[in-house]
Design a protein that fits this description.
380 residues; alpha+beta; Thiol Ester Dehydrase, Chain A; NADH Oxidase; six-stranded antiparallel sheet; four-stranded antiparallel sheet; 11 helices; binds flavin mononucleotide
Length: 380
Amino acid sequence: MTSSTRPQAEPRSAYKAFRHISTRWADNDVYGHVNNVVYYSWFDTAVNGLLIERGASDIHSGGVIGLVIETQCNYFAPLAFPDAVVAGIRVAHIGSSSVRYEVALFPGAEEDALRGQRPFHPCVCGPRHAPPHALAPAITLCTGDLDVTHVLNAVDQAIASRQSMRQFLPTPVPKETIAHLLALASRAPSGTNTQPWRAYVLQGASRDALVAKVCQAHDALRANPALIAGYREEYDYYPEKWVSPYIDRRRENGWGLYGLLGIGKGDKDKMHAQHQRNFRFFDAPVGLMFTLDRVMGRGSLVDYGMFLQSIMVGARGHGLHTCPQAAWNGFAKIILPHIGAGENEMLVCGMALGYADEAELVNTFRTPRVSAKDFTTWLD
Ligand SMILES: Cc1cc2nc3c(=O)[nH]c(=O)nc-3n(C[C@H](O)[C@H](O)[C@H](O)COP(=O)(O)O)c2cc1C
């Protein structure tokens, strides 16, 4: 590895859980430092110890085993017996059948590491393969606001592992799976059980034809911005006037994503191209369009949110990912006739559905959340 690609050491605040590691006399090699191979045993000890401690792994009677398929270690400073060592653990990536844990080793007692007062000595541990239902502690670790002592159940896992994916694989999604997800989502609640949702599933030629039409319109709009007058969103998804803190979060989100993709403020071409990826459903083989009868009230949009989230969370249970998309809304006049929607229907949003290309840079984008304590008022 060249020095330019060498990972940087990170402070303990970058890690979510900590375990104490004892060094032994035999850990030192002839140079008086902990031998390289010992670190790998510490990685296993740290991660498995945590999984067992959190009740997520039962090595004797549990039916789930985790297999390490790749490991890597970067050394920043030596450790030696009789140092005390603390392992900081975090989850770098959660796939549909694997978790990549990263472990950093900090010299010193646990209290020192927790206070961040000692120099650090991180070693990075590579992917660790585990069946999906063994992922619970991984998710608790990477979603900082969740209680890390709490092992997530399957529903928690599905909710916590949903994220908007923006690059999909061409792998087809079985029709029965899509039908199942829609049926599952129909269990969503709605005021007086009105069930105001209506879904259109686009695959194959119908999907490709809509992509071509909207991409063309999007390009034409860029060439002649005056055309915007002809495109209208049918309801105000966003406020007319942005105020803090929403505008700040929106900016953080936009620039975070563009920054990751190397798109600067002046890169109009790249920005247009990235925005247009929406109108290709981010290459997902399945595009969904959702409409609402215009006669319905604003409350139906509340119901709709629950229906959409049920699809997205349900998708996780089948190894699928989604991206909800309001980007389509301005193109309703093209979309509604294309899908054969009635005059009475308005476009609520679109959604990409498929198997995410999890290795793709854009899909490593993780969005932060305001801590629950900052949006909750407890009235006892
Ligand atoms: C109704 C709705 C519409 C959205 N529209 C778009 C969209 O058009 N394009 C896009 O890339 N993301 C879209 N998003 C995704 C949001 O940007 C994303 O949910 C938010 O940044 C939080 O990130 P996460 O979904 O990865 O947790 C939309 C989300 C929702 C709920």
